[in-house]
Specification:
The chain is mainly alpha-helical. The chain is 64% helix and 9% strand. The chain contains 9 helices and 3 strands, in the order αααααααββαβα.
Length: 325
């Protein structure tokens, strides 16, 4: 599948180059700063797409002695790089729009520019939607970021189209600079959001949607002998997941039986979560306080009666402590 992702990103890069040429053609025809902002962002699309393709290649290199967890975190750097470029492009667009507002110039062949912008906007939106869909399915942060970037480009282009149409029918050419500055602010916001997302990944910030998904799998496949699960941790390295957790098992089990139960938990997670997953499980012995939540009916060493089955939630499984009734 990584080869397919690289093939898709390579095609996206080629399409982005074609769209950039169309947008610059529209700018040279119209001399519209608003259309120029759209064309300049296409350059960012190409640079970001090139880096995304390279980072995806690195992310899927096998583990080695220097990178025991793989190379997947390069995807976070790719997303941060893309976000930084987008923000810088937005700042340059604001400077250009202010200059054009102070020193206005005539807008020409606006209708043809509108038609070319419509074509590029539709292609960008469909391409971005496809990249986000595939990126979520394959858990590729790089591809999702590239798709969201193209979608945001399409949304800004759609707003740009409305403004260009208003200019065409009203003749208010000063709207050109206003539109350029407005979309530049939107682009800067998009860039900062991507940088924030990349920083969260590098800092191993908890991925709540992913944690919720894993907790759901644990609840749906819960065994009576799994008295408790806690200290759940998930780290994402590109398409790879590293999962750590503690499981509480009967203290009177021998080492072999405990080992087999841990392997059962690991195998279940690998089957239910089919992406590349590495799971480390630490086995804890049960304590007398565990009896109140233990569902093993034929336990011969039970010291307290069973009181209630505790619901495993994301909040409770993240805690580094055994649960009690």
């Amino acid at each position: 599948m990584p080869h397919k992702l690289k093939y898709i990103l390579a095609q996206t890069l080629i399409i982005s180059i074609i769209l950039m040429l169309i947008k610059f053609w529209a700018y040279f025809i119209t001399k519209s700063d608003a259309i120029l902002t759209d064309a300049l962002e296409s350059i960012i699309n190409i640079l970001a797409g090139s880096f995304a393709l390279f980072s995806l290649y690195l992310a899927n290199l096998p583990k080695d002695e220097n990178h025991p967890y793989g190379h997947g975190k390069i995807e976070f750097l790719s997303v941060g790089f893309e976000g930084g470029l987008i923000a810088l492009a937005g700042l340059s667009m604001i400077v250009k729009s202010i200059h054009s507002f102070i020193y206005p110039h005539k807008i020409e062949e606006l209708l043809l520019g509108i038609i070319l912008t419509i074509i590029s906007t539709l292609i960008n939106f469909l391409l971005g939607y496809y990249l986000v869909f595939v990126g979520k399915k394959q858990r590729s942060m790089t591809m999702q970021a590239d798709g969201h970037h193209l979608q945001s480009d399409a949304y800004s282009s759609f707003g740009l189209l409305l403004g260009l149409l208003l200019m065409h029918f009203t003749g208010l050419h000063w709207l050109d600079s206003f539109l350029a500055a407005s979309f530049a602010i939107f682009i800067i916001y998009t860039g900062i959001s991507l940088v924030r997302k990349a920083t969260s990944g590098v800092m191993d910030e908890a991925n709540l949607p992913l944690l919720n998904e894993v907790v759901k799998i644990l609840n749906e496949n819960r065994e009576q002998s799994w008295i408790d699960i806690h200290n759940l941790r998930i780290i994402q390295y590109g398409q790879h997941l590293h999962i750590d957790t503690h499981i509480t098992l009967p203290h009177y089990w021998d080492l072999e039986k405990t080992h087999n139960e841990v392997k059962k938990l690991e195998a279940m997670m690998l089957v239910k979560h089919p992406q590349k997953t590495e799971m480390f499980v630490h086995a804890d012995p049960c304590l007398p306080t565990s009896c109140a939540i233990c569902q093993i009916g034929n336990c011969e060493v039970r010291q307290k009666k069973f009181m209630q089955k505790l619901e495993w939630t994301t909040e409770s499984l993240l805690k580094n402590e055994k649960h009690q009734a």
